[in-house]
C-alpha cells in the first residue's frame, strides 16, 4: 500500500489515554515515588534536629549539605529506576494489547520487542530525573523555611514542625502521583505513535483534543 493509497484514521486513542486502564499503575508507582521523597524529607529533618537542635543558626548554614546528602541517600536506596521499569513496561504492554484488540481500528498486532524495552528505559530515566527535581524543589523551599524561622528567633523544632506542615505526606504524595501519571501517559502515547508510524494500514493520524467545560484555555 502506497502513501497515496493509505487511509487516514482518526486516532481517538491519542486524545484520551484513559481508554487504557492505568489507575492501579499510577497508584502503585506514585506510592513508591512518594516513599522515596518522604524518606528524603525525614532523613534531612532527623539529621538537622539531631546535630543542630541547640544551634539553629549553625543548622541554617549547614542545612544545604545535610539535605542534599539525605536526598542522595534516599534516591540511591529507593532506586526509583528499578521501581519504575516494571510499571512502565506494564503500561507499554497494555498499550500493545489495546492496539491489537478487536475494539481498535485498524487492529495492530505487535509483540513486546527491543524497541519497547528502550522506551521503558527512557521513560524510567525520566521518572528518576523528575523525582530528583521534586526533591531539589523540596530542598529549596525547606532551606528558605529554615532560614526564615532561624531569623525570627525560632529553634530547630520550629523549623522541623514548619517543614513537616509544608511538606506533609499528602502534599508529597500528590507530587509523586503527578510524576507517575505524566510519565505513564508519555509511555502510552509514544508507544501508540510509534506503532501507528510503523503500521502499513495508517497513512497518517489526527490528534483530537475533546474540549469540555473543564478544559483549560491553555489546552
Distance separating the two termini = 35 Å
Mean pLDDT: 81
Share in helix: over 70%
Strand tally is 2
Low-confidence residue ranges? 1-11
Spatial order of the strands forming the largest sheet = 1-2
Please state the structural category: mainly alpha
Largest pleated sheet: 2 strands, parallel
Give the H and E element order: EHHHHHHHE
Describe, in plain words, how this protein is organized in 3D.
The chain has 219 residues and is mainly α. The model is unreliable at 1-11 (pLDDT under 50). The protein is elongated. Helix 2 packs antiparallel against helix 3 (56-78) and helix 5 runs antiparallel to helix 7 (169-198). Strands 1-2 form a two-stranded parallel sheet. The two termini are 35 Å apart. The chain is built from 7 helices and 2 strands. Helix content is 71%, strand content 3%.
Write the layout of secondary structure elements.
Elements lengths: L7 E3 L1 H4 L7 H30 L3 H23 L1 H20 L14 H38 L4 H11 L2 H30 L5 E3 L13
Parallel strand pairs: 1-2
Helix pairs in contact: 2-3, 2-4, 2-5, 2-6, 2-7, 3-5, 4-5, 4-7, 5-6, 5-7
Amino acid at each position: 500500500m502506497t502513501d497515496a493509497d493509505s487511509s487516514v484514521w482518526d486516532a481517538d486513542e491519542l486524545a484520551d489515554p484513559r481508554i487504557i486502564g492505568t489507575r492501579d499503575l499510577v497508584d502503585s508507582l506514585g506510592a513508591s515515588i512518594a516513599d522515596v521523597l518522604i524518606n528524603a524529607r525525614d532523613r534531612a529533618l532527623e539529621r538537622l534536629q539531631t546535630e543542630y537542635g541547640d544551634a539553629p543558626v549553625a543548622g541554617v548554614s549547614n542545612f544545604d549539605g545535610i539535605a542534599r546528602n539525605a536526598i542522595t541517600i534516599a534516591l540511591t536506596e529507593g532506586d526509583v529506576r528499578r521501581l519504575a521499569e516494571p510499571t512502565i513496561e506494564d503500561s507499554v504492554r497494555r498499550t500493545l494489547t489495546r492496539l491489537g484488540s478487536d475494539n481498535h481500528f485498524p487492529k495492530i498486532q505487535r509483540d513486546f520487542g527491543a524497541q519497547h524495552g528502550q522506551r521503558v528505559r527512557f521513560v524510567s530515566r525520566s521518572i528518576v530525573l523528575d523525582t530528583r527535581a521534586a526533591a531539589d524543589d523540596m530542598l529549596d523551599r525547606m532551606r528558605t523555611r529554615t532560614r526564615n524561622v532561624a531569623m525570627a528567633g525560632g529553634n530547630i523544632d520550629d523549623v522541623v514542625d514548619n517543614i513537616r506542615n509544608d511538606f506533609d505526606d499528602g502534599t508529597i504524595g500528590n507530587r509523586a502521583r503527578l510524576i507517575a501519571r505524566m510519565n505513564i501517559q508519555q509511555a502510552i502515547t509514544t508507544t501508540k505513535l510509534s506503532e501507528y508510524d510503523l503500521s502499513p494500514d495508517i497513512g497518517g493520524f489526527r490528534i483530537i483534543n475533546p474540549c469540555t467545560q473543564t478544559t483549560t484555555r491553555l489546552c
